[in-house]
Amino acid sequence: MSETIRWGFLGLGSIARRFGNGFAFAPDNEIYAVASRSQAKADAFGAEYGATQCYGSYEALLNDAEVDVVYIGTPHNFHLPQTLMALEAGKHVLCEKPFAVNAREAALMIRRAQEKRLFLMDAFWTRFFPAMVKLRELLAQKVIGDVMLVSADFGYRTGSVTPESRHYSPSLAGGALLDVGSYCVQFASMVYGKQPIEIATQATLGSTGVDELSVSVFKYSDYELATVTTAIRLNTPHEARILGSEGYIALPRWWHPDEIQLVRRGKSETLRFEEIPGEGFCYEIMAVGDCIRAGATESAIMPLDETLAIMKTLDRMRAAWGLRYPFEA
Ligand SMILES: NC(=O)c1ccc[n+]([C@@H]2O[C@H](COP(=O)([O-])OP(=O)(O)OC[C@H]3O[C@@H](n4cnc5c(N)ncnc54)[C@H](OP(=O)(O)O)[C@@H]3O)[C@@H](O)[C@H]2O)c1
Predict the structure, then answer these.
(1) Is the pLDDT confidence value at 298 over 90?
(2) Which ligand 1 atom minimizes the distance to the CA of 58?
(3) Domain encompassing residue 215
C-alpha cells in the first residue's frame, strides 16, 4: 500500500460532498475513485473533487484494485449490503452513521470484517475533533469528579414531511433516532463507557410511521443517568452537558465542537478550539488513514464492540416505541 490512502466513495449524495471537502485538509489521503448509480453524476462529482476514476456503478469501483478504503455514504438500509460487498472485494470500510439499521446487521458486518481482517469503522466523526479528544482527557482526569448526569440533544426541522425521503420513509429506515439521535446515544456511551441498564423513552411516530420526536432517560446505575432528545420536526439547541460531583462541562454545538465550558467551584473557564479546517471531517479521515497504514482493523476511538453495543441500545429504544421497519419483519 502506498503512503497515500486511496479512498473510493460509494454514493454521491449530500454527506459525500461534505465529507469530500475534508480531503483538502487531510494530507496523505486522496479521493481516488467515486461511484454513483449514474455515470453522469459520478463524472461531475469526480471532476469537482479531483478523482482519478469515476464509476457509474458501485460494483465497478469495488473491482478497482487501486482503492484502499471505501466510504459508504448511502441511506442507512444500504449500509449492510454495501459494507459486505466492499469487504468481499477486499476493501477497508468507513461506513456512515448509523452504522446499520439494527444490531443484527451490525454484528454481520463486524463478523465479516474480522474474518477478512479488514478495517471497519462507524463514521461518528464527532469523536475525532480536538475538543472531543480534550473532553476525554478531562473526564479521565476526573476534573468534574464523578459523572452523574449527561444530556445531549440533536434535532432539526425538515421543511415538510416528504414520505419518500430517507428522513421519513420507513423503507429507507427513516426517523430521527437513527439519523441524529444515534449521535446522542454514542455520546452518552463515550462518557460512561457502557450502555444503560434501564431506558424510559417516549416518541411521536408521525404520519409515515417513523419517529419524528423523542425524549429518553437512560439509567446506568443509581447515580449515573442521561437524557437524550432527538427530532426531525423540531430545531433543538444542539447542546451537551456533563454534570459531575465537582462541577460540570457544557459543549455548545457538541457534535462538531469548537468549545468546552468548564465550571468548577463557581468559576467558569472556556477552552476554545477555533481553528477547525472546513467542517472538520479531516480529523476522521486522517484517523482512518492512520489506522489503515498501521495495519489496524478497528479504531481505538470508535471500536467495533462499542458500535455493536450502541446499536443494541438503539434497538431497545425502537422496540419500546413499537417501531420496526418493513424489511425487519
Ligand atoms: N456524518 C454526518 O455528519 C452525516 C450527515 C448526513 C448524513 N449522514 C449519513 O449519510 C448517509 C446518507 O445521507 P445523505 O444525507 O448524504 O443522503 P442523500 O443526500 O440522500 O444521499 C444518499 C446517496 O445514496 C445513494 N443511493 C443509493 N441507493 C439509493 C436509494 N435507493 N435511494 C436514495 N439514495 C440512494 C445516492 O447516491 P448516487 O445517486 O450517487 O448513487 C444518494 O445520493 C445516511 O446514512 C446518513 O445518516 C451522515
Answers:
(1) yes
(2) 41
(3) 131-275
